[in-house]
TrEMBL record, chain A:
<dbReference type="InterPro" id="IPR027417">
    <property type="entry name" value="P-loop_NTPase"/>
</dbReference>
<feature type="domain" description="ABC transporter">
    <location>
        <begin position="5"/>
        <end position="239"/>
    </location>
</feature>
<keyword id="KW-0067">ATP-binding</keyword>
<dbReference type="GO" id="GO:0043190">
    <property type="term" value="C:ATP-binding cassette (ABC) transporter complex"/>
</dbReference>
<dbReference type="InterPro" id="IPR015856">
    <property type="entry name" value="ABC_transpr_CbiO/EcfA_su"/>
</dbReference>
<dbReference type="GO" id="GO:0016887">
    <property type="term" value="F:ATP hydrolysis activity"/>
</dbReference>
<keyword id="KW-0547">Nucleotide-binding</keyword>
<keyword id="KW-0472">Membrane</keyword>
<dbReference type="GO" id="GO:0042626">
    <property type="term" value="F:ATPase-coupled transmembrane transporter activity"/>
</dbReference>
Automatic annotation (TrEMBL), chain B:
<dbReference type="InterPro" id="IPR024919">
    <property type="entry name" value="EcfT"/>
</dbReference>
<dbReference type="GO" id="GO:0005886">
    <property type="term" value="C:plasma membrane"/>
</dbReference>
<keyword id="KW-1003">Cell membrane</keyword>
<comment type="function">
    <text>Transmembrane (T) component of an energy-coupling factor (ECF) ABC-transporter complex. Unlike classic ABC transporters this ECF transporter provides the energy necessary to transport a number of different substrates.</text>
</comment>
<dbReference type="InterPro" id="IPR003339">
    <property type="entry name" value="ABC/ECF_trnsptr_transmembrane"/>
</dbReference>
<comment type="similarity">
    <text>Belongs to the energy-coupling factor EcfT family.</text>
</comment>
<comment type="subunit">
    <text>Forms a stable energy-coupling factor (ECF) transporter complex composed of 2 membrane-embedded substrate-binding proteins (S component), 2 ATP-binding proteins (A component) and 2 transmembrane proteins (T component).</text>
</comment>
<feature type="transmembrane region" description="Helical">
    <location>
        <begin position="73"/>
        <end position="98"/>
    </location>
</feature>
<keyword id="KW-0472">Membrane</keyword>
Length: 278, 265
């Protein structure tokens, strides 16, 4: 597998005297992977996301996206490859209606109008927002606005989608909606997804999890590897996924629980088999 | 508070007026305001009034909306009319006291001014009620386009305009939220004297300002991430189309102008 994003020894400092927001961070993401980036507030997750498409330029280190080193010359080329969905659904809605917002990125790329009409319609269908195409943002829910933001990214046909806490301002229902939409689109278009999140269940869906603390990458592994650390995660300022919480509660009551990480399904399987075996 | 504001509201509909090209509507409205000053006797005012009411009928919008559009300006209109009536001299004098006198010309002028005001407000209300803000900003951009020749930043202005329009409801919601949050903490809006009222605005204004800065920052980042590099090399998603009905408006307005010139004394 060939890495599509490669970061080497990235250091970002917002203020000369202050602590570095990112300190010698290196990692790579392969084509088609779903990677979750987790960490507590102020651990540098969002900064990291912005260095990938050049919204923030690192003082040290190099970023390579799809064989191109990130520099002034090909920054716009890289931005074409990387689509970003940000946290606040209201603040990233540029257009006055849904279809205008989806078209905004296409307009920027100078895509002819006939092509735009097709792509906007197509993108709105993919996120199931077709019937809302002429609505104004004020008349949409948070989850719907986020889906429009995703449609705006999808219409640009990027290779990579970065979700910068895209679900953190949504209710559980909207969150579910957005995540399932992304999942579907990822499968259909063989995209690479980097999702930055506080939501531990969202991270549990990823192929790989990166854990950040104080601007440094402290852990890296599959969700199973990361979450089996159990209580150590709480030390990193993170929550535990629900099966882990259940295991901890059972262990407290003197029940022997398996050491390795289990998904919700795995947990259910283990529970019913262990009850039957008694 | 916000619901009373009829000016600048859009009422969805599918009438002939709704479907007109926004450029035509915008220019026609300005043109109407200009030529209403041609009217100077009751025949010409009658013509203008009939014309306006025909337009209103064509829009299929409840007349109440237009009446409500006039209401906030009613005092200004009455004040101007009163000044006209009391200070115009000439013709038969009906009543006189100190520097005030009511004369034939004064009454006539008063009525004319009143009609002029009301018709202008009706026409501009008709424009905003039947045209989406978005279409208006498209129209303004189109009309300003020749100014590109003198390096007027037409694209930037129109982008600012459309973003501003898009954020009006969002900011209104936020204002409401901040107001309620401050009320919950004991701020009294609209109570007490002028100074106190102004002081009460501060805890509303500053958070609103700060949050607008944050919004602007977020929006700029999102726009850049989506490849926005300024007006150069952009294509446009929405295009305005000129239909036959738009040409018809031009013809109707030409006839209206000729008739008005013919009728004026």
């Amino acid at each position: 597998m060939k890495p599509i994003i490669e970061l080497q020894e990235i250091t970002v400092r917002y203020n000369e005297e202050e602590l570095a927001a990112l300190n010698k961070v290196s990692f790579s993401i392969n084509q088609g992977e779903w990677v979750a980036l987790i960490g507590h507030n102020g651990s540098g997750k969002s900064t990291l996301a912005k260095t990938i498409n050049g919204l923030i330029l690192p003082q040290e280190g190099s970023v390579t996206v799809g064989d191109m080193p990130l520099d002034e010359a090909n920054i716009w080329q890289i931005r074409k490859m990387v689509g970003m969905v940000f946290q606040n659904p209201d603040n990233q809605f540029v257009g006055s209606t849904v279809e205008d917002d989806v078209a905004f990125g296409l307009e920027n790329q100078g895509i002819p109008r006939e092509e735009m009409l097709i792509r906007v319609k197509d993108a709105l269908e993919q996120v199931r927002m077709s019937e809302f195409s002429t609505r104004e943002p004020a008349r949409l829910s948070g989850g719907q606005k986020q889906r429009v933001a995703i449609a705006g990214v999808v219409a640009l046909r990027p290779d990579i989608i970065i979700l910068d806490e895209a679900t953190s301002m949504l209710d559980p229902e909207g969150r579910e909606e957005v995540i399932s939409t992304i999942k579907k689109i990822k499968e259909q278009n063989n995209l690479t997804v980097l999702s930055i999140t506080h939501d531990i269940d969202e991270a549990a869906n990823a192929n790989r999890v990166l854990v950040m603390r104080e601007g440094e990458l402290v852990r890296e592994g599959t969700p199973a590897e990361i979450f089996s650390a159990g209580p150590e995660l709480i030390g990193l300022g993170l929550d535990l996924p629900f099966p882990e919480k259940l295991k901890a509660a059972l262990a407290q009551r003197g029940i022997d629980v398996p050491k390795e990480y289990l998904t919700e399904e795995g947990m259910v399987d283990w529970l019913w088999t262990s009850v039957l075996n008694k | 508070m916000m619901n009373k504001l009829i000016f600048g509201r859009y009422i969805p509909g599918d009438s002939l007026i709704h479907r007109l090209d926004p450029r035509v509507k915008l220019i026609a409205s300005f043109y109407f305001i200009a030529i209403i000053f041609l009217a100077n006797n009751w025949q010409s005012y009658l013509l203008a009034a009939v014309f306006t009411f025909c337009c209103i009928l064509l829009s299929k919008i409840d007349f109440g909306f237009f009446a409500r559009g006039v209401r906030p300006l009613l005092w200004l209109i009455l004040f101007t009319v009163a000044l006209q009536i009391l200070f115009t001299t000439g013709g038969t004098v009906y009543w006189s006291w100190w520097i005030f006198n009511i004369t034939e010309y004064g009454l006539q002028n008063g009525v004319f001014i009143f009609c002029r005001f009301v018709l202008i407000i009706f026409m501009s209300t008709l424009l905003t009620l039947t045209t989406q803000p978005l279409e208006l900003s498209d129209a303004i951009e189109y009309i300003l386009r020749p100014l590109k020749a003198v390096r007027f930043p037409v694209h930037e202005i129109s982008l600012m305009l459309s973003i501003a329009l898009r954020f009006v409801p969002t900011l209104m919601d936020e204002t409401e939220k901040i107001m309620n949050a401050q009320r919950a903490r004991g701020v009294d809006f609209g109570e007490g004297g002028l100074l106190q009222k102004m002081k009460a605005i501060v805890p509303l204004l500053i958070p609103l300002f700060v949050s607008s800065f944050n919004r602007a920052e977020d929006l700029a980042t999102a726009m850049e991430a989506r490849g926005y590099q300024g007006g150069e090399g952009r294509t446009k998603y929405r295009v305005l189309h000129w239909h036959q009905r738009d040409s018809l408006v031009v013809v109707v307005y030409a006839c209206f102008t000729i008739a008005l010139v013919f009728l004026r004394g």
